[in-house]
Each structure stands twice: as structure tokens, then as C-alpha cells.
Amino acid sequence: MSSRLATGGTSVFSGFTRLCKGLAVVLVVGSVIVQTFPPAVTYLTLIPARTIPFAWNLITAGYIEQSLVAMVASTFGLLFIGRLLEPIWGSKEFLKFIVVVNFLTSVCVFVTAIAFYYITRQESYLYTPLSGFHGVLSGFLVGIKQILPDQELSMSPQLKLKTKWMPSLLLLLAIVISFFTAEAASYLPTFIFGTYVSWIYLRYLQSHPETTLRGDPSDEFAFSTFFPSFLRPVIDPIASIFDRLLCGRSRVSDEADGYTLGSAPLPGSDPVEASRRRERGARALEERLASEKLSAGVNTEELSHRDAAEIV
User: Fold this and answer.
1) Model pTM score
2) What are phi and psi of 130, to 5 degrees?
3) Where, by residue number, does the polypeptide cross the bilayer (predicted)?
4) DSSP conformational letter for 266
5) Cβ–Cβ under 8 Å, residues 45 and 64
6) Cβ count within 10 A of residue 91
7) 261 φψ region: left (φ > 0), alpha (ψ -120 to 50), beta (else)
8) Coil, helix or strand for 201?
9) 16-294: what CATH class?
10) Each residue of 122-155: pLDDT tens digit?
11) 186-222: pLDDT as tens digits
């Protein structure tokens, strides 16, 4: 029985990339450091009142978990989601995504904490240690929404959830829980900014080595797709304003296939290429699932032969 469990488990806990395992070690070591040496929290986590002299905590805070539960959740999330996204994006782009999202999320959380202090004059906004990898984890869900928007997850025989709704449901759950616990409220800004920053990065900035295009301007990845359909007529005009302010992009005609400037398409404005990337992501997922099923089948066959040999 024990050998069977061990063999069956190898298909679930295998396939992790070297980069993901290395980053997982960073998360574990960071958590061990702050648990073993509590004063390290002052230097490694994001404490807004001390960020000016300790500016490096804008970088380190994203890799420090202050509790064992958070460390385990972040490590497993990184390993399991990373082994899906990294082969599709490439190791370099995957690491770049993590570094950029982590840093910009910390910057946004820092600015928000300072703003709330000046509004409320509550010093807790300045001296509460903030840290965690959950901003990047929420960003990973945005990446899955981009690549596999229509992939269904079976929560139960009666309940199926499409992956495109996972970032929105996570934020909704985080907002609801934040009304009941102060600890959850401290995580909320990281979830929100992690989701939004990752969407901006994937929408406008992510590079694709196989082409000269950047981002994903397809309608299926528009900001309004994070909201229910009845809200989209209200959100689309607002989102288009920020779209033009931040990126200088606008649609010049309903007949255009992408964003244009005069008669020339802007870089990254090919929706056909965006569709191809999603197809590649779907194929990569199917291939991974097929390989895991094949591996599980081989393991089952080997176990059957072993059991038969033991009986003989």
C-alpha cells in the first residue's frame, strides 16, 4: 500500500521546473529567517515608515512569508501554477513577470499605505509589516485567464468554474473576508495590486521572443472581462480613458483588427497572434495532462506486475 501511494504521488509532485524549485527555496528560506530571527522582519518586510532608509524591502517583501500557512500555500501555488505557465512563457519571461509584478505591487502598496495614513492619521498604516508572495499568485491567475480562459474546473458534478473568473472570484473572496478580520485586510491591497499590475504587464508589456509583438490587446483580455457582462458597458468607456493615458493606444475604426496609429499597427496589436498564444497554452496544458495520465498508466501497470509477482 505504501509503495502504491508513493508511486502514485510521483505523477502529482513531478514536473516542477528548476526555476520554480529555486524560487520555492527562496520562499522557504525567507520564512525560516523571519521565524528564527524576528528582528529580520524590520529589514526584509515592507514597513512604510521605514521604507525610505530600507528601500530594498520593496524587493524583498514579496518573497517573505510571515506565517507557516502562508509559506506552504505560496510554495505550492508557485510550483503547481509555475509548471504550467513557465513552459508557455519561457523561463526568462516567467522570472521577469515575477520580479516586475512583485516590485510594482510593493510600490503600489507602499503608496497606498502612506495615503491612508495622511487620510486617517492612524499610525498602523505606517508600522504594520507587509509581505508575501500572494500578489504574484493572484497575477498567476491572471496569466491563466489569458492563456486558458475557457478551461473548466470541476468543483463538483453540479458546479463548474471557468478559469477566466478565478482572478475576480479571488478578489471578491478577499474583499469579503477583509470585513471580518484585520489580518485579511492587510493582505487585500497586495491581492488587488497584484491582479491589476499583472494585467497591465500582460496586456501591454509582455514580450514574445517568437515575434516582435508585445502584450495582448484582444477583446477577450480587456479589463472589463474581469467583471460581469452587465457592467461592461459602464467599465469599457472608463477603461479606454486609462488605456489612452497610459499607453497612447486607441481604436480608430470598428473595422480595424487591432490598435492602430494612423495606418500602421502599433506593436503588440495583433489579435490573431494573441489567439495563437492562447491556443499554444491550451495545447501545452493538454500535452501535460496527457503525459501525466500516461505516466500514471505506466505506474499502474508496473504496480500490477509487482503485485502479481508478490502473490506468486
Assistant:
1) 0.77
2) -115, 135
3) 23-47, 67-85, 97-119, 125-144, 165-182
4) P
5) yes
6) 13
7) beta
8) helix
9) mainly alpha
10) 998 999 999 999 999 999 999 999 998 888 777 6
11) 889 999 999 999 999 999 888 876 666 788 888 889 8
